[in-house]
């Protein structure tokens, strides 16, 4: 693999080019006269990288973003960009694919600089790295004579973790270097980006992916990787991803490894994702209908002994109870209010057993009131 790129873009190039293969031969599979090549070493590549979209058109579900971005790429009016949205929805993939389309692999290292949360991004880095790179001029032609954009691109990934001072230092640079440089800022929480920066960028919101899209993608990957997966196992997998494609693909790779060459079942999915089987939730809710504290305590102890996470349990309880038509809105309001409080306590490190008991006692009170 070519390694002539600079430090940052080398890691990028490695990321994107290895993504085309699941196993990459460490050496060429060739014999050079008089010189024997070393045996081929197969290196596994995570499926999220292998299936990272390589072209902007491969990005699923973000149609509005892609349509506008394609116009920007083909025209000369490429603005500063701000991508925001939940994890695993294609923000980084989109800008990497767009950068490759605009500059081609030859120009990529000269024209694109990526900084992410793993890089130090205080004010000194903005002053030293970003401003220096932004000041370099850029021609509108590739070495082979093909036209290309006349600017360079600075990608500031995960920029919601940049300090406010560093963001402030960017403001002037974005304006001053606008002839030669475009910025693409990427974050999960737009509220953490200072107003003067957001107003200098065209904003693109990435939506959580629809379950059908994730399901389709997982089925394609299963077909490519020869993984046999039961239909309800895929559906369950998709259900717990909250529109995060990265999470879905990572879970799929994990379940496929549990028992290689065997069909992936619903039980495998529960095992890997930590989803609690519906029968367990059902059992907990049923026990709340009988006004026996002892019975409830024993059931909760048994469930927690299985190793299920309390946070997962309250989330699933919430979804389960929400769907129950037999519970009145008033009862739901009291229970969900309690769920929110229990969630906060769990985050603060409260005891799981006591919190679950507290919640289920509230459920029991509501059920046994009538
Ligand atoms: N819209 C999408 N279409 C196809 N694949 C996607 C999409 N979004 C995410 N993926 C898959 O998920 C992986 C992670 O995507 P990406 O790095 O672009 O997410 P992100 O939005 O930048 O997330 P984060 O906010 O956590 O950085 C990709 O490698 C790809 O396999
Ligand atoms: Mg990202």
UniProtKB/TrEMBL annotation:
Keywords from the named record: ATP-binding, DNA replication, Nucleotide-binding, Nucleus
UniProt keyword annotation of Aminoacyl-tRNA synthetase present: no
CDD domains: AAA (cd00009), HLD_clamp_RFC (cd18140)
Signal peptide segment: none
InterPro entries per the UniProt record, alphabetical: AAA+_ATPase, ATPase_AAA_core, DNA_pol3_clamp-load_cplx_C, DNA_Rep/Repair_Clamp_Loader, P-loop_NTPase, Rep_factorC_C, RFC_lid
Any GO MF annotation of the entry: DNA binding
Domain (AAA+ ATPase) ranges: 77-209
Keyword check for Chaperone: no
Domain of life: Eukaryota
A GO cellular-component term linked to this record: DNA replication factor C complex
Gene3D superfamilies per record: 1.10.8.60, 1.20.272.10, P-loop containing nucleotide triphosphate hydrolases (3.40.50.300)
Family to which this protein belongs: Belongs to the activator 1 small subunits family.
GO biological process: DNA repair; DNA-templated DNA replication
NCBIfam families, per the entry: PRK00440.1
UniProt-annotated location(s): Nucleus
Pfam families membership: AAA (PF00004), RCF1-5-like_lid (PF21960), Rep_fac_C (PF08542)
Protein name: AAA+ ATPase domain-containing protein
């Amino acid at each position: 693999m070519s390694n002539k790129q600079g430090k940052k873009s080398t890691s990028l190039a490695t990321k994107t080019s290895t993504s085309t293969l699941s196993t990459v031969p460490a050496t060429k599979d060739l014999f050079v006269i008089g010189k024997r090549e070393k045996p081929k070493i197969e290196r596994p590549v995570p499926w999220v990288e292998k299936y990272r979209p390589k072209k902007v058109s491969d990005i699923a579900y973000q149609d509005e973003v892609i349509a506008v971005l394609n116009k920007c790429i083909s025209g000369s009016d490429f603005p500063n960009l701000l991508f925001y949205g939940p994890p695993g929805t294609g923000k980084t993939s989109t800008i990497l694919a767009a950068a490759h389309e605009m500059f081609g692999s030859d120009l990529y290292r000269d024209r694109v600089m990526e900084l992410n949360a793993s890089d130090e991004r205080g004010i000194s880095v903005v002053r030293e790295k970003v401003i220096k790179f932004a000041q370099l001029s850029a021609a509108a032609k590739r070495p082979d004579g093909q036209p290309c954009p006349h600017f360079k691109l600075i990608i500031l990934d995960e920029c919601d973790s940049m300090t406010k001072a560093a963001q402030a230092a960017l403001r002037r640079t974005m304006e001053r270097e606008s002839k030669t440089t475009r910025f693409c800022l990427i974050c999960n929480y737009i509220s953490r980006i200072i107003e003067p920066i957001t107003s200098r960028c065209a904003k693109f919101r990435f939506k959580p992916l629809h379950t059908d899209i994730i399901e389709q993608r997982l089925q394609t990957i299963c077909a490519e990787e020869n993984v046999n997966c039961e239909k309800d196992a895929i559906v369950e997998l998709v259900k717990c991803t909250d529109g995060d494609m990265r999470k879905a693909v990572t879970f799929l790779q994990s379940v496929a490894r549990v028992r290689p060459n065997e069909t992936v079942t619903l039980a495998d999915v529960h095992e890997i994702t930590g989803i609690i089987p519906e029968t367990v939730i059902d059992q907990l809710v049923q026990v709340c209908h009988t006004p026996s504290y002892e019975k409830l305590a024993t059931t909760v102890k048994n469930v927690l002994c299985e190793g299920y996470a309390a946070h997962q349990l309250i989330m699933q309880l919430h979804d389960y109870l929400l769907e129950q038509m037999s519970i009145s809105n008033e009862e739901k309001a009291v229970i969900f209010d309690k769920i929110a409080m229990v969630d906060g306590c769990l985050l603060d490190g409260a005891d799981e057993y006591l919190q679950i008991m507290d919640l289920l006692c509230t459920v029991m009170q509501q059920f046994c009131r009538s």
